[in-house]
Write a structure and sequence with these properties.
Number of domains: 1
Radius of gyration: 19 Å
Mean pLDDT: 86
Distance between the termini: 33 Å
Low-confidence stretches: none
Number of strands: 4
């Protein structure tokens, strides 16, 4: 379970960096706009989920895999459509995206702990991206979770054959 603990530390570090970036971005510039506060609450929840999932991984909590998979799935895709944008990463990200409004341009983005929630963007803009780092972490999480389930299924089938 060294891999799960490493993923746990990675998620905690990503969540902490995300919180710090959020604090610095808000800084001394509090907005009274309700949508801005909604975004801040959502971002706090997502970075908090990352930290919570990381702690669960380190502690060996039964829900660690589920929380981590949910956390990574939320980071897997970014989208801009109908003037609304969502992109979230807690930790490193390397995104490969396609801008479908400009004759299908392929774009690359990289960085650390980021959240982008926008509205009232160009309504014609359509953009999709895939976070390759989240995809790799998801693959590791699936490898950790799958053998246990398969082993349980095999033992169950063997008991049925004997019984």
């Amino acid at each position: 379970m060294k891999t799960l603990k490493a993923i746990g530390y990675y998620q905690i570090a990503g969540g902490i960096v995300g919180f710090l970036m959020l604090l610095f971005s808000v800084g001394g510039n509090p907005q009274s706009n309700k949508f801005v506060w909604l975004i801040l609450i959502g971002a706090t929840f997502l970075f908090g989920l990352s930290i919570f999932a990381g702690i669960a991984c380190i502690d060996g909590n039964k829900k660690a895999l589920q929380l981590s998979i949910i956390n990574q799935l939320l980071q897997l895709f970014g989208i801009v459509i109908v003037g609304i944008s969502f992109s979230y990463s807690s930790g490193l990200h390397f995104r490969v995206g396609v801008d479908l409004t400009r004759e299908s341009w392929i774009l690359f983005k990289y960085g650390c702990s980021d959240i982008r929630l926008f509205y009232n963007l160009d309504k014609d803009l359509i953009f999709l991206d895939l976070n390759l780092v989240a995809m790799v972490v998801l693959i590791f999480l699936m490898k950790i979770s799958t053998p246990k389930k398969e082993a349980t299924d095999i033992i169950g089938m063997a008991k049925e054959i004997e019984g």
